[in-house]
Design a protein that fits this description.
The protein has 80 residues and is mainly α. It contains five helices and no strands. Helices cover 75% and strands 0% of the residues.
Length: 80
């Protein structure tokens, strides 16, 4: 029987940590679009400090969470 880590890699092509980080990022993006506070998002995603969440978000998107939110808001208003 394969370990959970091997099964993740085989089925998804991602390690468990990569999958978890991708899920956190998708949840963060959705919460930012719903105007949740960055501190609340960080805690909901399991980060003990908002700065750790902000660093992860910036590493994966190239933007701070607040800048992502502003860009999304501007793009959404352009589509209306």
């Amino acid at each position: 029987m394969p370990t959970l880590a091997r099964q993740f890699q085989r089925e998804l092509g991602l390690s468990f940590i990569q999958w978890r980080n991708r899920l956190r990022l998708l949840r963060a993006q959705a919460a930012l679009k719903e105007h949740h506070a960055i501190q609340d998002i960080a805690w909901q995603l399991g980060y003990s400090h908002p700065s750790a969440f902000i660093a992860m978000f910036r590493q994966h998107t190239g933007l701070s969470p607040e800048r992502y939110r502003r860009q999304w808001r501007n793009h959404a208003s352009d589509c209306i």
